[in-house]
Amino acid sequence: MSTYGIERPFTSKAWWRRFIDTVKYSFHVLFHPFDGFWDLIHEKRGSIAAANFFVILLLAARLMQLQHTSFLFLSVYWPKVNIFEQCISLLLPLGIYCLCNWGLTTLFDGKGTLRDVYMATAYALVPYILSQLINIPLSNWLTRDEGSFYTVLTTVGIVWSSMLLVCSMIQVHDYSLGKTLLFLFMTAIGMVIVVFLLLLFLTLVGDGIGYFVSMYKEINFRLN
């Protein structure tokens, strides 16, 4: 049995060797997406630890982008930036996407588990993460007239990650290209519905809390 299938405590050297190997494997996935994602899932060449690392790197890149990108390309008033909100704005869509994609594909013969969907999605984000990490120092060297380089690099990262996402879903769920694109579209619709329901739920909770607070204030006013 392949040693990649063995999960070890993070305190052991073997665990760290496996973690480094699975992080390095992302570069193979970048240029060989079909066999890369197949081995990532079926041959246990990836790991949740590496996926978590890429998500953390995505959050770090976003915060570094806000603080260190040149004002010519991104104007941010840092004292008003809420780090918690920035993290939620990335983690929440990622979580909803994974849940919706897994939930829908499970109903239509999708082979991937929630773990597989999350791991493959995290690996697919690597080109975008790299493009942003490169853009941060690059933005401080470019002039406004050279801003097209900044835009092109960001676009390449988004397009590359999008292509990897499609390839990952093909391999994870064992779908054809057409079926994959259909379910990615349905996943997007599912995400909109979930967000709407979340907003509706939060609105109802807020109204309920407001009602009880008003009632408490009214009772307190009359008693006093």
The radius of gyration over CA amounts to: 22 Å
Query: What value does the average pLDDT take?
Result: 87
Please count the helical segments. Answer: 8
How far apart lie the N and C ends? 75 Å
Walk me through what this model shows.
With 224 residues, the protein is mostly helical. It has one domain (3-223). It is 78% helix and 0% strand. The protein has eight helices and no strands. It has helices spanning 13-31, 33-42, 48-68, 83-107, 114-124, 126-139, 147-173, 177-223. Helix 4 packs across helix 5 and helix 6 (126-139) runs antiparallel to helix 7 (147-173). The chain is globular, with a radius of gyration of 22 Å. The model is unreliable at 1-7 (pLDDT under 50).
Topology of this structure?
Blueprint: H1 13-31, H2 33-42, H3 48-68, H4 83-107, H5 114-124, H6 126-139, H7 147-173, H8 177-223
Helix pairs in contact: 1-2, 1-3, 2-7, 3-4, 3-5, 3-6, 4-5, 4-8, 5-7, 6-7, 7-8
